[in-house]
Amino acid sequence: MYSSVRRYFEEQDPRFSIAFAPALLVSILLYVRSPLSNYIFDEQEALLANPYVNDPKVPFLGAFSRDFWGLPPDRSIGSYRPIPNLIWRLLWHVSHQPFIHHWVNVIGHAVNAALLAGFVLAASGRRQLSWLSGAIFLMAAVLTEAISGVVGIADVLGGLGVLAALHALRLPLWGMPLGVLAAVTFGLFSKESVIVAVPLVGLAAFTSAPLLHSRPMRLLRALLAFIAAAVALAFYTEFRRLTFVAHPEGFWSVPAGSTWLQGWLHQLKKWLAQPRPALEPPPPGTPWAKQQLLKFLAWFQQPSLPHDPINNPLVDAPVPLRVAAALRVYAGGVGQVLFPWTLSGDYSYRAEPVPDRRVFFGSVMGALLALVPLLAGTVALMANLVQSWRTRLMGALERRQRLAPLALLATGLLWFPVAYFPHSNIAVLLPTVRAERFWYLPAVGTSLVLALGAARLLRSPRERVAALLLGAFFGVQAFQARSHALDYMDDLSFWDATRRAVPLSAKAQLNYSVMLGARGQLQERLKYNGIAKDLAPKWPMAHIYYGDTLCRLASRPESGPPDAAARLARAERAVPHYLRGFALAPNDPNLISLALQCMWEEKIFLPHSEALTELAADHPGSWLAFLVSDTLESGEKNNGVQKKYRPRSYDEGPKNGE
Q1: What span, in angstroms and rounded, lies between the C-alpha atoms of 387 and 525?
Q2: Residue 418 CB coordination number (10 Å)
Q3: Other CB atoms closer than 10 Å to residue 396's CB: what's the count?
Q4: How many CA atoms lie within 13 A of 309 on its CB side?
Q5: Domain boundaries in the chain?
Q6: Run of H or E including 288
Q7: pLDDT above 90 covers what percent of the chain?
């Protein structure tokens, strides 16, 4: 058995048809989660509460006018990614279980690993190097979140678009731009961070031209690839701008008596006539480079993203400290690529806090890990150009063997810092401070660099030692990937593993407490909810949920027969926490209605109506003011808060009208 497997890899080139089968097997072994798994983390919003996915009244092509979460533009929380929604909609008719949906990621990751191995083979002609590149990418434990979690489909499909664009570089000169255009367009409509394909595919075209073509024409191929990727970006941006926008009633109406063609042309004219976003002039003295960046961002017009200091503490940080923290996060990500000792599904406050100074070990390491690869990659690229000139008279095969290592090294070193940049929170603030799935595209570059190092190591005189080291590397990656995939057993296991991996994450502690509460373990819920509240004392959700736990515990006497007075006294313990939460979030209807409903059911709403009214008066026009007033007026009729204002329960789909 062992000898047969060894011969498979030693005697066959990893063309896609050869590499895909073992890649799929390994992907299944490492990343498939339990068939009994339920909705975990963002999967509730992405699938269960996604109006586009589970509402048959929404047209199938309505995905192009909704965000990643199926919401229309006027209710969007950002992230325009239609292709994942189209796939989810189709699979929703097959099964509502997240286990089925995550198989798209598992298979897609195997496809991407096989594509990477095939591209390296085409560029280098080196069998061992090609297998290593695909294997390192395939088994990178830091990518587990993107593969085992359903919402990682955007990262996997975005990676598919970029890797397909690399293979398009193998096409003849006339067909290459069309292939790049199609592949990058697919990637962008899967995830907006594929914007990095514009420089990176151009770079790959420049470095790989002598390796893939007898007539390289480096500059021309790189320019055409760059233009094709830029056209894809322009098409994506303009299409999103014209499609992902809220229109007034009757906007698309056509004049009476219009033919089909006249109606279509009328709507097309209105579509194209929509106003462009206004650009606020930068302050005088703004550097030219920053002005161009601002102009680009205004044109690109990323949909508005959530501003939540719990998910991303950097949103309110001064720019110098934000950059320092972002560099620290980047350094941690590079460390996880190499040594994935700790993997987590969440890094919220206070796991990645705002530093109190700009220069410290993490920021220095992050800066070095960004600058050194860029400088080294530039040097490798220059050396490759010199080598290309010196070998211009050699035969094609010999020349490729000489040029491939430096070309791939330059590509990999320049690739991963650039690919990570959109996720860095430096140029644009993201909804989250850190996520391991952000490394999906950068891992293409790190895999090239690591594969070159591994191949060189295996050629050393101490081949057995090299093989042991490489085996240990793959062993750690495989073990950590499988271990982290097992965290997706169910929501309780996921948040338990997350809060153990990152104990300073208030969100992980709170969500773990909620999962315990959903299973009736209210005392345990209170304990971990308290930890979350202490970690994030200004987080309204932590206070409201802590009060809610106390309120629900009121109906459970510690000992003896039920006692109405004792129950009321126990419920009273929730009031200070509710009031604190109301003061911190007077415009969060879900939290407020959750608290008011329990207060009503435990008969502590009316006794505290004066305090609630006074607090509501401090926030006129707020949800707090409305819900307190409405419940005072019609609480008897509605048995508390009106049902349409009550929050969804856990694992519940969208309400009617959502």
Answers
A1: 64
A2: 20
A3: 12
A4: 10
A5: 2-37+97-245+315-484, 505-645
A6: helix 288-300
A7: 76
Q: How far is CA 10 from CA 14, 27, 461, in A?
A: 10, 21, 19
CA distance 650 to 440: 30
| Domain 505-645 grouped into CATH 1.25.40.10 | yes
Instruction: Name the token pair of 172.
Output: 């003849």
> Which positions ≥6 away from 580 have C-beta within 8 Å?
540, 543
**What span, in angstroms and rounded, lies between the C-alpha atoms of 238 and 4?**
53
Residue 8: per-residue pLDDT? 84
Task: Check the CA dihedral 96-98-103-105 and report its sign.
Answer: positive
What pLDDT sits at residue 493?
Answer: 95
Helix 540-553 × helix 564-572 angle, to 10°: 170
Mean pLDDT across the chain:
92
**Rounded-to-integer distance, Cα 140 and Cα 159, Å:** 14
> DSSP labels for 194-232?
GGGHHHHHHHHHHHHHHHH-SS--HHHHHHHHHHHHHHH
- Tell me phi and psi for residue 326, to 5 degrees: -65, -40
How far apart are the C-alpha atoms of 545 and 526, rounded to whole Å? 9
Q: Is 2 exposed, middle or buried (0-12, 13-18, 19+ CB in 10 A)?
A: exposed
Q: List CB contacts of 311: < 8 A, sequence separation 6 or more.
A: 348, 349, 431, 432, 433, 507
pLDDT of 378 strictly over 80: yes
- How far is 109 from 155, CA to CA, in rounded Å? 10
How far apart are alpha carbons 594 and 54 in whole angstroms?
Answer: 25
pTM for the structure as a whole: 0.92
Rounded Cα distance, 454 and 475, in Å: 14
Dist CA 19 CA 12 (whole Å): 9
pLDDT digits (tens, 9 = 90+) for 233-255: 999 999 998 888 877 777 778 88
Cα angle 573-577-578, degrees, rounded to a multiple of 5: 100
pLDDT in tens, 462-486: 888 989 999 999 999 999 999 999 9
Whether 142 contacts 125, CB under 8 Å: no
What's the CA gap between 181 and 189, in Å, rounded? 12
pLDDT in tens, 179-221: 999 999 999 999 999 999 999 999 999 999 999 998 999 999 9
Helix (H) or strand (E) holding 389: helix 361-390
Preceding omega of 350 cis (within 30 degrees of 0):
yes
Higher-confidence residue of 280 and 450: namely 450
- Identify the CA nearest to 378 among candidates 404, 416, 409, 401: 409
DSSP, collapsed to helix, strand or coil, labels residue 558 as: coil
User: Please, where are the H alpha helices in 519-646?
Assistant: 522-535, 540-553, 564-572, 575-584, 589-601, 609-617, 623-638
Residue 468 burial (10 A CB sphere; 0-12, 13-18, 19+): exposed
Structure token digits, residue 385: 């150009």
CA 104 to CA 109: how far, in whole Å? 8
